[in-house]
Structures are given as structure tokens and as C-alpha cells.
Amino acid sequence: MKTRIKELRARHDLTQEALAKMVGVRRETIVFLEKGKYNPSLKLAHRISKCLNTTIDELFIFEDSDLE
After folding, report:
1. What's the pLDDT at 5?
2. How many angstroms separate the Cα of 49 from the Cα of each of 2, 23, 40, 45?
3. For the chain, what is the mean pLDDT?
């Protein structure tokens, strides 16, 4: 899975730490999400998308290999 978190976070002038505090996770979670090394819960994906003023579909890009 790929994400646009880093790109959208930069547009909103947010640090990883600031976004993490807004959604109630540790900064490391944001790091792993940005690198595509962690699949968030639906609840966390929703919180992040709201903070970045976008939709979950725009924020996370799923590939066919992600479904296997």
C-alpha cells in the first residue's frame, strides 16, 4: 500500500509529530505509515484523512498485490 500522507502533511505544514498528536498515535506510527510499512485501522485512516482534509481513498493507494 502506498500513501500520500507525507505529501498532504507537507501541504498543511504539519510535522510528523504534529499529525501524530492530532490523531492520537506516536510519531513512529506516522513514519511507518508514510513508508507503507504499516496498515492502519479504519478508525486511524479516518482520523488522518479528516486532519488532512481528504478522503481515505485519496490518502491510501491500494494495489492488487495488497489484496493477496
Report:
1. 97
2. 14, 10, 12, 6
3. 92
